[in-house]
Amino acid sequence: MNLGRTKTIILLTDYCTALLAWILFFYFRKTKIELAPFEVSDRFYLGVLLIPFFWLGIYYFFGTYKDIKRWYTTRTILITTKAVVTGTIVLFFTLLLDDYVYSYSAYYELILALFLLQYLLTIIPRLFITYNIVSKIHRRIWGFSTLLIGGSSKAVEIFREIEQLPKGIGSQFVGFVNLNGIDKEIANELPHIGHVDELERILEEAQIEEVIIALDSTEHEKLKQLIIRIQGRDIRIKIIPDMFDLLSGSVKMSNIFGALLIEVEENIMPFWQIIVKRWIDVVFSVIALIILSPLLLVLAILVKRSSDGPIFFTQERIGKNGVPFQIIKFRTMYQNAEAAGPQLSSEHDPRITPIGRLMRKMRFDEFPQFWNVIKGDMSLVGPRPERQYYIDLIVEREPQYKHLTKVKPGITSWGQVKFGYAENVEEMIQRMKFDLLYLKYMSLALDFKIMFYTIIIVFKAKGK
User: Fold this and answer.
1) How far is CA 153 from the centre of its chain?
2) Rounded to an integer, what distance in angstroms lies between the CA atom of residue 243 and that of residue 241?
3) 376-426: per-residue pLDDT in tens?
4) Complete DSSP assignment for 274-317
5) Residue 14, burial from CB neighbour count under 10 angstroms (0-12, 13-18, 19+)
6) How many Å apart are CA 330 and CA 238, to the nearest integer?
């Protein structure tokens, strides 16, 4: 699939339809509502220049251009409807509500004309593009590089079921990896490209877009380990359902021709909330650094005078998708505090300076991390980032810790509000449970709630 060319066509089509819709609407507005002759004005030219980009922004906000290879009709209609309704309301209240009209019924005509022109001119070419994408997938011209995990008879069954479907579902198998033994039949039909121990390397080298795990969903521990290793990449994961999964409604079917598979859902937040969350992160952090600059200057002087050493403390932490970054904080410990190796701090840790103890209670030492947020390493709210050394210790006991790297780490978190600084690995695991719950229920509303309680902790100086 020529993804770049398809995306360019979609963007150009959306731009042209938005431009045409605005020109037609401007004509309708002048001749039918204002009862005036159509004439080109500065306002017309300004609209022609800006309105199409406004619509492209609205479409992006709703995730229209995300994963366009997986467009299908109902998704196209749903996203287009939500985007056009939102954009129409925004334009109406910002540009049209102050128009002089002969009666209030003209407002209804304006908003209806704006919606219908934009919606119809946008949805019709999109449906043609969607039909083209779906048609090529059904004819197995386009698809997604798919890895089959498993070498047993289960793998043979699911492979043959997908290959014998009357219409392709996009799975283009590049090979299989085995967990234990290898069934002769699967070896005759698919290339064997390695053992599951090499899974990460294979996913990277083969540029896998989809993984089908040929194990019963009752094999919970094996499935959990495999899913943990795959998640965090831009890869769809599908598993075979058992009877309980079917009766409980866990099976997600995206088209009626598909094989009977459970798709492991990774979209933690709606795309528009992800965009809003990032905007809130940046705007809040910039404002916070400006407003707090006098306090930051005072804290910097106090840290410098408290003991020898730098004002700021930097350390490598593990961020989203396991990518390391340098976290920045005010130094709260004496210099060379970890000369003997990595150590977690405790409430009465002698390595902490007097001013450092106060800063930790009020979380003032975290304020420089607003810079990490602006850079994109962190978010305001998210699981606290850890060092690789401690991640390895935690994963030995609780492998699901790796789920926390699916999102950006945060300055504060649900676990941080509950526990503060962890003093040992056991407390880190307890804190992790709250952060895993945060991932399950992640939303802007929950972020605001966590930030509210964090502010209470700062003012009450109850940080640990």
Assistant:
1) 36
2) 7
3) 999 999 998 999 988 888 888 888 888 888 889 999 998 888 776 777 888
4) HHHHHHHHHHHHHHHHHHTHHHHHHHHHHHHHHSSS-SEEEEEE
5) buried
6) 45
Q: With the C-alpha atoms ordered 168, 174, 178, 179, is the resulting torsion angle positive or negative? A: negative
Residue ranges of domains in the chain? 3-138, 144-264, 271-460
Distance between CA 430 and CA 412 in Å, rounded? 16
SS (H, E, C) 346-397: CCCCCCECHHHHHHHHCCHHHCCHHHHHHHCCCEEECCCCCCHHHHHHHHHH
Whether 177 and 240 have beta carbons less than 8 Å apart is answered as no
Cβ proximity of 18 and 56 under 8 Å: yes
Nearest C-alpha neighbor of 267 from the set 67, 57, 61? 67
CATH class of 144-264: alpha beta
Neighbours of 24 (CB within 10 A): 15
pTM for the model: 0.75
Q: Are strands 312-318 and 324-330 parallel, antiparallel or unpaired?
A: antiparallel
From residue 161, how far is each of 166, 212, 256, 355 by CA, in Å?
10, 12, 14, 66
Residue 424 in contact with residue 344, Cβ under 8 Å? yes
